[in-house]
Specification:
CATH class of the largest domain: Alpha Beta
Oligomer: single chain
Function: Specifically methylates the cytosine at position 967 (m5C967) of 16S rRNA.
CATH architecture of the largest domain: 3-Layer(aba) Sandwich
Organism: Alicyclobacillus sacchari
Shape: globular
Structural class: alpha/beta
Main location: cytoplasm
CATH superfamily of the largest domain: Vaccinia Virus protein VP39
CATH topology of the largest domain: Rossmann fold
Number of domains: 4
Number of helices: 20
Helix content: 40-55%
Number of strands: 12
Enzyme class: transferase
Subcellular location: Cytoplasm
Length: 449
């Protein structure tokens, strides 16, 4: 009998490979199809995310055992081999016999002709040892430094090249390594309905005691271990929101106050929108836009769950929003390459290309430029991304400031950030994943003159 966790992980990964599905959505779909124990859910998640995260390295490790080349293989067979090598080399506590046995059984179910081939490849792989770092040492001897980092951390060469150029070799190495460590679950307490202390006590009453206070945001809690927060009554009753602690720093930069009229130009899924509403005590108006109706509904659903009434979830492009009258403040949480969130979105490594960056910077500048035109004099525009590339971050901000010829100016955000980050502010702040075990974000604030 195939392990339910491996069966679920396989169906997730084959959808990613064949249908170009996002791993998080494919996994949700697979988990919804069958009832798994918490332990099996955790294992299925680790196998699915880990296999995608380490795919580049896995393929290098597999290549010597597949004479005809990996590209010639059927997706189903290659998926089975990839997820099996991930388990054998990165999840060493799993019995090798269980991994190989389930791999062969999977092959028999989905592509019977490949079962003996899968068995032979995995047995050969096991005979040569499963210490992947030792294996890589021999493969990396003839590679340059960028290629070695790419292979070690499993990122495409162009990403490694950009990060090394921006942050230097040592820090880039740390950033890449951080992107391979699963993130803890951070939650933001809904201050309209609860306190950090009351939520901590309620979690403890349910046996969830491995909790830490956030180090960057007062309303944050970090929950250790594999917890499905969305199944908790606290979540369903609107007392907390799942949100990376680094992301929690962005909405307060708007300096929202009760009664304000604020625009969130790219609002889905609604985490920052609802945080703004909480900071405004759910008074005033927040117009929250997205270009897809399904995402607009996600914003509306989040507001409903949190009992927030001040948000108007709207379908539309933020660049078309009229500022009549002008807004008190505008948030531009711009679409980006996502290089700061690859631990949670590992398929970005396969999906993003270097060519995407140029197209994104044009969109980002358009959004920021329009935001600056529809905010009132003296009002703030906060520009944020979840990427680490200066081309999408400070260079966009400086470009728009220059183009608007004195209409807006860069505002100092150091006083609105934790003391541990204040001295890192230059043209805004880039928060990288290795600093505080958060996702990576960029944030800057402009003021309309």
């Amino acid at each position: 009998m195939i392990s339910p966790a491996r069966w679920t992980a396989y169906h997730t990964l084959v959808r990613v490979a064949k249908d170009q599905a996002y791993v998080n959505l494919a996994l949700q779909h697979a988990l919804a199809k069958r009832e798994l124990s918490d332990r099996d859910k955790a294992l299925a998640t680790e196998i699915a995310y880990g296999t995608v995260r380490r795919q580049l390295t896995i393929d290098q490790l597999l290549a010597p055992y597949v004479r005809r080349g990996l590209r010639s293989m059927e997706s189903e067979t290659l998926t089975i081999l990839r997820m099996s090598v991930y388990q054998l080399s990165w999840l060493s506590k799993l019995p090798a016999y269980a991994v190989t046995s389930d791999a062969v059984e999977l092959a028999k179910r989905v592509n019977p002709r490949s079962a003996s081939f899968v068995n032979a490849v995995l047995r050969s792989y096991l005979r040569d040892g499963t210490d992947w770092e030792k294996r890589l040492d021999s493969l990396r001897e003839d590679f340059d430094d960028i290629a070695q980092l790419s292979l070690l951390h499993s990122y495409p060469r162009w990403m490694v090249t950009r990060l090394v150029a921006t942050y230097g070799r040592e820090r880039a190495d740390a950033i890449l390594a951080a992107g391979n460590r699963p993130g803890v679950t951070s939650v933001r307490v809904n201050a309209l309905r609860a306190s950090v202390e009351s939520v901590t006590s309620a979690l403890a009453a349910q046996g969830i005691v491995d909790i830490e206070r956030g180090s960057l945001y007062d309303g944050a809690l970090r929950i250790m271990g594999a917890i499905d927060v969305e199944r908790l009554d606290l979540y369903r009753d609107g007392l907390l929101t799942v949100q990376d602690e680094g992301a929690m720093l962005i909405a307060p930069l708007l300096r929202p106050e009760p009664g304000m009229r604020i625009l969130d130009m790219c609002a889905a899924p609604g985490g920052k929108t609802t945080q703004i509403a909480e900071l405004m005590r759910d008074t005033g108006v927040i117009d929250a836009y997205d270009v897809y109706m399904a995402k607009v509904q996600t914003i509306a659903d989040a507001c409903s769950r949190l009992h927030i009434a001040s948000v108007r979830a709207r379908l539309g492009d933020g660049r078309d929003v009229l500022g009549d009258p002008p807004y008190d403040a505008v948030l531009v949480d711009a679409p980006c390459s996502g290089l700061g969130v690859m631990r949670r979105r590992p398929d970005i490594r396969q999906r993003r290309t270097e060519a995407d960056v140029a197209a994104l910077t044009a969109l980002q500048a358009d959004l920021l430029r329009h935001a600056c035109r529809i905010v009132k004099p003296g009002g703030y525009v906060v520009y944020a991304t979840c990427t680490l590339l200066p081309e999408e971050n400070e260079q966009v901000v400086l470009r728009v400031i220059d183009e608007l010829e004195g209409a807006v100016s860069l505002d100092d955000i150091a006083g609105d950030l934790p003391a541990s980050l204040a001295d890192r502010v230059t043209v805004g702040l880039t928060l990288t994943p290795e600093m505080f075990a958060t996702d990576g974000f960029y944030m800057a604030r402009l003021r309309r003159n």
